[in-house]
Design goal:
By secondary structure, the chain is of the alpha/beta class. Helix content is 34%, strand content 17%.
Length: 708
């Protein structure tokens, strides 16, 4: 006989339900497989939005994103169609609209006992995902509520089918049964969509559970994401206190959750989540103070989430889960991403991340130095950004850098160009010029076509310093993302590091430079950024600034002509106004020990130009020694667009392609020469003059420059 259980859902819905709730209410879920019943409740949000059926068609494609071209190869026509995600540029991901306060408010409704077993729910705020999105299963920490992803529900819900595990407060399901319960769901998802990965996001205790499930399902395509996993609980800073907590009298137990709340997370980081970082210090600290004050009266719900009997049970569960998972690490074949906090006062998370990285076969680590144990509920981490920045988001068995690319959101734009590269933007005050089709030079990017495919071909400044200003300028002025073809080593760097600028490059469209990726980008009418000089140009030697190192191979011209792309040559200057190159490759390899280390590492890197000869084939990677200067300014000049539409001779005649290639190279050199000459006329080339100007105008973009 089927058992029927009821549980309160706010704002959630069960896995087997035929409806998606848009209001608070009770869902009576028949675990025997019958239909679920939805009962309205006045405890909800008060909205009267209609229910959305589960079988409703969602995420249908819209125009403007998919590439469809017809090419002729060997006299035969073939159609190439590449589907990209139908997400608009700078979309609203909702990140920062929910906070720890909302977690506590929602948890208050979900902790009420209902006698039911563990179950899945789908957050309403996640909304319907895009068609073809993979499933993401969230496994909660010690609280068991399942709201640990609250800050990320809306963001993740765009590209994942999000489901969260809820373990009722008084549930006593053994760990082995939980492993089988989650494993059964994983296998069902894999059976229904065998070509899509299944994502497991485990928080603390949920991390141990995720690893155990992965060990039991080696044949399922899993991507496991662990946030401060509790596999290190035996080495916890609080481990000596566990016996004391279990023996504590009932009358004193209500103080434990309050004490744990300050140990588990960084209160300031929790309160900073929805604070406007663009405000002046006074109002910003005012918002922070209000958030901290609002948290204090809500902490009482923690004693309801973890009553004494539950605390004793959860401590035993933590230990058994860690032992179970650790004994099976050798059998895990899934992709694993470990997120570790630098200020975790409950677990030695950084050390544990290093240990897991050395034991697991396919593991990447990202650390967050300023965050506490409740990493996913704190400011400073957008989980979708981390997944994308570590190249873990895919919708099929293999990652496709074009089909699986998610455009950056508005919140990612704000973080990247204010917090990550804001210092460089401020110091260099980028200014851009472009050329209209009639040859007129104008300030701004009006001369660069807004419709693709467009191929931007130019000079690579030292260390690629020009990249952030270029990408930001196109996004701000044209709402266009320029996708840069990058050296493959960017995607195979150290597996253990802080989430940094290099990861944000991937979030903003960096893609390995391969013929197939180049082909796909042009086929989808993208704006593509190509540096023919590559690493040799970006890591040039002393005295080689503004010198081009281009190979004598016009292949990019032919590829552009194949798709009728518009080629825009451009030059950039300013590296010599930012830093002095003190130690180049030749200097560094002469240093004992360091030189041997650089040579050894370069022997292992993947060579993009292995079949070439001469200086252009020199791809040695290194970090040059730089001496900062009083900052000058970055200048960009985009030349007159070159149309290739209808120029089939570029495909047939190598001489025509070589001629256009030489012309583009000369245009880049002319652009650099133009900027070097004209910047001498800029009254605001120096940072001191710009700083005085900004006393009266707040925007970096408003600072004047020379007249073109």
């Amino acid at each position: 006989m089927a058992a029927t259980h009821a549980f309160r859902l706010s704002p959630c819905f069960p896995q087997n339900s035929g409806c998606r709730l848009r209001f608070g209410g009770r869902v009576v879920c028949n675990l025997g497989g019958g239909d679920s019943t939805v009962v309205s409740s006045d405890r909800g949000s008060g909205t009267n939005a209609p229910l959305v059926k589960e079988d409703e068609k969602i995420g249908s494609s819209i125009g403007g994103g998919n590439g469809h071209v017809v090419s002729t190869v060997g006299g035969r026509k073939r159609s190439v169609k590449i589907d990209t995600l139908p997400i608009e540029m700078m979309w609203d991901d909702g990140f920062g609209t929910a906070s720890m306060k909302d977690y506590l408010d929602n948890a208050k409704d979900m902790v009420k006992p209902d006698g039911g077993p563990p179950r899945w729910f789908c957050p309403v705020e996640s909304g319907p995902p895009l068609e073809g999105s993979p499933t993401l299963l969230f496994l909660p920490g010690m609280d068991g509520i399942g709201l640990g992803l609250l800050m990320h529900h809306k963001t993740l819900g765009k590209v994942f089918e999000v489901r969260c595990l809820h373990i009722p407060v008084y549930d006593r399901t053994p760990f082995e049964v939980l492993v089988e319960f989650v494993g059964q769901t994983v296998r069902q998802e894999h059976a229904s969509s065998p070509n899509k990965p299944v994502y497991l996001v485990g928080d603390s205790f949920g991390g141990s559970l995720a690893l155990a499930v992965a060990a039991h399902n080696p044949n399922v395509d899993l991507v496991v994401i662990l946030a401060n996993p509790a596999t290190s609980v035996e080495r916890s800073q609080l481990a000596p206190l566990f016996p004391v907590l279990e023996a504590l009298p009932d009358e004193l137990h209500r103080t434990i959750p309050y004490l744990l709340s300050f140990v588990m997370g960084e209160p300031t980081k929790m309160a900073m989540v929805n604070v406007d970082k663009k405000l002046p210090p006074g109002p910003m600290f005012g918002q922070l103070s209000e958030n901290l004050t609002a948290l204090l009266p809500r902490l009482s719900v923690l004693s309801d989430i973890i009553p004494k009997e539950t605390l004793v049970w959860k401590l035993k569960l933590l230990k058994s889960a860690a032992a179970y998972a650790n004994s099976r690490l050798h059998s895990i074949t899934a992709e694993v991403l470990v997120l570790a906090s630098g200020k975790d006062n409950m677990l030695p998370s950084e050390d544990e991340a290093k240990r897991l990285s050395s034991v697991l076969k396919n593991c990447v680590v990202r650390t967050f130095k300023e965050n506490g144990h409740t990493l996913l509920l704190e400011d400073g981490i957008n989980l979708l950004s981390v997944i994308r920045g570590t190249c873990k988001y895919r919708r099929s068995r293999r990652l496709d850098f074009v089909k699986d690319f998610v455009p950056p959101s508005q919140s990612e734009y704000d973080v990247a160009f204010s917090q990550v590269t804001g210092w460089l933007q401020y110091c260099s005050s980028p200014v851009m010029f472009s050329t209209l089709r009639d040859g007129t030079i104008v300030k701004g990017l009006d001369g660069v076509p807004s419709e693709g495919p467009v191929l931007l071909v130019g000079y690579h400044m030292l260390m690629g310093l020009e990249l952030s200003g270029l990408i930001e300028g196109f996004l701000r002025e044209k709402k266009v993302l320029v996708r840069g073809l990058a050296h493959p080593e960017l995607f195979t760097l150290s597996s253990a590091s802080e989430f940094s600028y290099l990861d944000y490059m991937k979030v903003f469209g960096a893609i390995p430079v391969t013929p197939s990726n180049f082909f796909k980008l042009l086929a989808t009418k993208s704006h593509v950024l190509l540096y023919p000089g590559g690493a040799r140009e970006a890591l040039h030697r002393k005295g080689e600034e503004y010198k081009l190192f281009w190979p004598n191979q016009p292949e990019f011209v032919r590829m552009a002509a194949k798709f009728g792309a518009t080629i825009v040559p451009f030059g950039t200057v300013g590296e010599d106004d930012i830093a002095l190159l003190a130690l180049d490759y030749d200097d560094l390899v002469r240093i004992p020990v360091l030189g041997d280390d650089i040579r050894q590492k370069n022997r292992k890197i993947r060579r993009v130009r292995a079949n070439m000869e001469g200086e252009v084939a020199n791809e040695n990677l290194f970090i040059p020694g730089l001496i900062p200067k009083v900052p000058g300014r970055f200048y960009y000049f985009f030349g007159k667009p070159i149309e290739t539409q209808g120029k089939e001779e570029l495909l047939r005649d190598k001489g025509s392609a070589d001629e256009l290639y030489s012309y583009i190279k000369s245009e880049v050199e002319s652009s650099i020469g133009y900027l070097l000459q004209k910047r001498e006329e800029d009254p605001y080339r120096g940072i001191v003059d710009r700083a005085f100007f900004r006393l009266f105008s707040a925007s970096v973009q408003d600072i004047p420059t020379f007249s073109p």
